[in-house]
Amino acid sequence: MTLLRTFGINNINKLGKFCYNNLPTFRTQLRLYNTQQEVVVSFYDDKATKYAEKSIRPVTLKELMRFVQPSLNNTSTLLESAKYTRSELPVRLARRVKALQNLPFIVGTNPYIKSIYKLYYNSFELIRSFPENICDKGIDEKFAEMLKEMVTSHSENIPTLAKGMTFLLDYFFINFFKFSLSLFFFKGFQECKKYMSPEDIKNFLDDMISARIGIRLIAEQHIALHNNLNDTSYTGIIDTKLQPQKSIQSCSNFVKELCEVHYGSAPNILIDGQIDTIFTYVPVHLEYIITELLKNSCRATVEYSQKVNRTKHPPVIVTISKGKNFIGIRVRDQGGGVPTKDLTSIFDYSYTTVPQDDIIGGLEGQNILANVSKMAMQSGLGGPIAGLGYGLPLARIYANYFGGSIDLVSLHDYGCDVFLRLKQIDKSLEDLEI
Amino acid sequence: MITKLQNLNIRWFSQVKLNRSFIQIRPNTTQSTQTTSPESIQFLPTLSSSHLIPFPSSSSSSNSPSTVTTTTSSSSSPPIKSIGQYRAYSPQHFYNNRVLEKYAYQSVNTVTLRQLIVFGRNITKDRLIKSANYVRSELPIRLAHRIRDFQSLPFIIGTNPHIAMVYELYWLAFEKLRKIPLIKDMDENDEFCNTLKGLLKEHLVVIPQLSMGISECSNHLPPDQLDKFMSIMLRSRISRRVLAEQQITLTENWNDHGYIYGADGIGDNINIGIVSTQCNSNDIVEKCAHMTRNLCRVIYKVEPPEVIVNNQVDTTFAYIPDHIEYILYELLHNSIRSVIENHSPSLKDTSISNEILQQLLQDQNSPKSPKSLNFNSLLNNKNFSSSSSQYPPILVTICSSPTDIYFRISDQGGGISDDIYSNIWSFASSTSSNKKFKNFIQVPQMAATVQEYEQLIISPTLNLGIGLPMSKVYVEYWGGGINLFTMDGYGTDAYVKISRLGNKEENLE
């Protein structure tokens, strides 16, 4: 979605062209990933263990943003940020490596989990082996380059699935897999569910995903220092003048098109309430959550319309409110609600309201392109590995990360109200640690 | 008279504040009672003379059941006993507790709405007496369970005068009820119903007293435990009142010869005792909306926001109308008030005495009032919107599943701020515990029904802070649910789910 905004793309037809122009980059990234897979992880290599024992130094949002103050925009802050990033990331990555190492052995042998393990290990190695003393701008440039590679590799590692995929698919990958290393986790743990208790899986995933949000925030914040220095409302990846109305608008255009591609029609998405609200937040997080919620609502609305032979889709209404400490966003649909028996599990992993077989089948077959929109529509943002239902739980982790919440209320045979509450992070910069 | 009463209350309350010690205030309270006797009856608890008789020891009590019933029937002229005279821990109780424990060990026989309906539909003399005996044996058990709850509280809480008073009341009711002998004929049933009526009336002080007691005890027990205690207390209280009122109403209907009861056609009798088999979701919302808009129109002197019912279903269900009306009234009232106050902040401080309110309401309802036209349309028009209000409307959505009915009440009243929101369901809210129930000092008795607001027994302008937690107690009693989500700065959505089949057992724990 960041790309979506950056490039002003809100029309799927333009995607092909966009992707074509950018194709070399993707290829490089895929190659990058493939080479990483060759790395062998040795039992006697205890660097990760050593690093994991170090304590992490939580950084408050305020500190993170301070690096990017326009007035302080000079080499010294840049280097300060680089030093922090260089010393902090290996510790955090090592902890993730340890967490993966502590999984039951059989789980570690699962190809999906294994590839994630390698990815984390490689990232850890990559940063660890970088010179510790980042003393001038030149080294910092290289460091940032490397971080970028790491972040992208964490985003798009889908080599086997990527084979033979076309532009449209590439589009989904870049945009969605930014968030969707989780896909591998979900696929992996779906296959491993008989070896671990649901609580253990849930705890592991929750830890893993929120740790990943922290790692990405730190890395991307440093990368961002090299990018948008001319954009005043951005401090790194945090937007101090984020207009939820605009974010929702762009997400809703996207979701509507996705919905139209897949279902042939889409409900209107209306935005009301305090639409002039401006607040400070991480736009990618907001967009991820909003897209997920809108997708759920649109899907429910269209499918319920089909079920009850409704000719006209009632609109999905998104209401924005600005409270003292929280921004509220309510997504209200008339998609028939969630059946009572499913209500307790909608925020659990490995659950979806969509039947699994046809989507998984589509993945293996030749008509993968035709199924892309369907997959994206029906699963979480990642699309391809559908029937895993991680859209809402992931959205919830994102919302919770800065002290917000997501609540869902279902009215039977009528619709759902989803309440998203996001903390205005500028009001509590001191308390929020990453 | 009312202003005088309020003065008195304030004076009394200040005394309480000045003298935190319970023993110190006792002489003062009795003094004020003596000097202003007629008014003070209204806010001091009324108890019958029989309560002054010390408990007979358990051995002798069982031999004299008839004397007990005669004393209770004469309970119509109650002398007053001030709060100060209640003892928190009577020495008899400790050794009397064996009697209580015998009852407390028995488990409760819960009923469902459906059972109440089926039983009441084909009522006969035999059945009436049977149900009288069920109530007679069930009430002491339910009371005993709650008395045990009191006894499990920390000792310090038991010494709080409000809590102590309710404890004493429960003990007295328990003693009275358990001694009633088997009911064999209609005369005894009538007498039993009179006893029940007397008790119901006496126990009207329970909600205010408990609320004040709980909020005063917030230092001594974590709020969640106090809330749990309170909600079990109140749900059990509802359950006992339902049983008692059902028996009373069935008996009254039976005695009333004009009343067609137990007729062959099932559709003939919509009301079985206090249960209605044909509660109409739409009608109830409209009735509550009408009432609260009417009151708000008088209180704020503006045209209140419209209540637009977007009913997905127009459905009927079996319920106790008092319960669902209380819940919906409270929610609608909250919504309408917050919309008005949010959109015209100048109207926020509304102090209006009941007398003036009464007067205004009469004017409002008189046929020559220009607003009366609006009332008619209110009742006739589904989307009762006719005159234009300057406020955004309250949207009510009603929908249903095969087992449940859902109400959603959606307003744009500016929402609820975080600190208040975290305590909306709490009886013992932590942040403003002392403030929360302070207005109960003006409400000596409370049955928690809509009629109290309708008939201005309780001033609708008073903010008691008990509406939401009480609604939760009501809705959970028959196995439903209530939830409220707010968008601070914009508005609030309230959700109520109730079972439409009436097959849920009373939820007492």
From TrEMBL, chain A:
Domain Histidine kinase: 283-426
Secretion signal, residue range per the UniProt entry: none
Tagged with keyword Nucleotidyltransferase: no
Keywords: ATP-binding, Kinase, Mitochondrion, Nucleotide-binding, Phosphoprotein, Transferase
GO biological process: regulation of glucose metabolic process
Organism of provenance: Rhizophagus irregularis (strain DAOM 181602 / DAOM 197198 / MUCL 43194) (Arbuscular mycorrhizal fungus)
SMART domains associated with the record: HATPase_c
SUPFAM superfamilies associated with the record: alpha-ketoacid dehydrogenase kinase, N-terminal domain, ATPase domain of HSP90 chaperone/DNA topoisomerase II/histidine kinase
Keyword DNA repair assigned: no
Enzyme Commission numbers on file: 2.7.11.-
Subcellular localization: Mitochondrion matrix
Protein name, entry field: Protein-serine/threonine kinase
Cellular component aspect of the GO annotation: mitochondrial matrix
UniProtKB/TrEMBL annotation, chain B:
Gene Ontology MF: a single term: pyruvate dehydrogenase (acetyl-transferring) kinase activity
Family: Belongs to the PDK/BCKDK protein kinase family.
One CC-aspect GO term: mitochondrial matrix
Domain Branched-chain alpha-ketoacid dehydrogenase kinase/Pyruvate dehydrogenase kinase N-terminal span(s) in chain numbering: 111-256
Region annotation (Disordered) ranges: 54-80
GO annotation (BP), single: regulation of glucose metabolic process
Name of the protein this chain belongs to: Protein-serine/threonine kinase
Organism in which the protein naturally occurs: Rhizophagus irregularis (strain DAOM 197198w) (Glomus intraradices)
